[in-house]
């Protein structure tokens, strides 16, 4: 009986150590990674309310706009399909938002087929290849960036990263950092 408790205790300690290591990786990557001038800026999809980008998506689009205006990339790729409750795809909503902000329509490329982070990046890679784009800055929320970096490497995108933190939704952002631990572990284990 004592052996079972010792084994369970050891497993619990290993579990806690793994969780802490992954959380440190997620947080340190999100705050230390900096965007580099690239051929394209990829905005990962996020919820759309009817036709309007959600606050998280709007912040991602604003970051893309800032980087575009500062000359970090010539093209912007907006990614995301049409989910439940959305009148249009996330990609289309993002494109319209950026056009209204002054980005020329022809410089915004869209992937409106994707429904996951993996698909966002896979289909964005296809768009990059079709347009002879070699490098990208990938934008998402800070808590998402470490997992995004692993997936980007797997699909073959040479990337740097830029994250947003939506201060008025701090509870959701903190929850995102916590939720990413099992998501990142899953990606690592999936290989």
Automatic annotation (TrEMBL):
The chain crosses the membrane at residues 7-31. It comes from the Bacteria. Keywords: Membrane, Transmembrane, Transmembrane helix. One of its GO terms (cellular component) is plasma membrane. The keyword Magnesium does not apply. The keyword GTP-binding does not apply. Pfam families: DUF218. Residues 39-159 form the DUF218 domain. One of its GO terms (biological process) is peptidoglycan metabolic process. PANTHER family: ENVELOPE BIOGENESIS FACTOR ELYC (PTHR30336:SF4), INNER MEMBRANE PROTEIN, PROBABLE PERMEASE (PTHR30336). This is Uncharacterized membrane protein. It comes from Thermoanaerobacter thermohydrosulfuricus WC1.
């Amino acid at each position: 009986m004592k052996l079972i408790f010792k084994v369970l205790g050891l497993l619990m300690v290993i579990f806690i150590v793994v969780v802490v290591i992954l959380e440190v990786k997620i947080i340190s990557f999100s705050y230390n990674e900096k965007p580099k001038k690239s051929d394209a800026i990829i905005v990962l999809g996020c919820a759309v309310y009817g036709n309007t980008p959600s606050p998280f998506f709007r912040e991602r689009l604003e970051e893309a706009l800032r980087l575009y205006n500062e000359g970090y990339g010539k093209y912007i790729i907006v990614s995301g399909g049409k989910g439940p409750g959305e009148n249009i795809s996330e990609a289309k909503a993002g494109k319209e938002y950026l056009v209204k902000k002054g980005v020329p329509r022809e410089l915004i490329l869209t992937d409106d087929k994707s429904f996951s982070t993996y698909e966002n990046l896979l289909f964005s890679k296809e768009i990059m290849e079709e347009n002879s784009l070699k490098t990208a800055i990938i934008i998402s929320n800070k808590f998402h960036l470490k997992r995004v970096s692993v997936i980007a490497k797997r699909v073959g995108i040479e990337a740097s990263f830029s994250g947003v933190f939506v201060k008025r939704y701090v509870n959701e952002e903190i929850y995102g950092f916590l939720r990413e631990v099992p998501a990142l572990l899953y990606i690592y284990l999936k290989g």
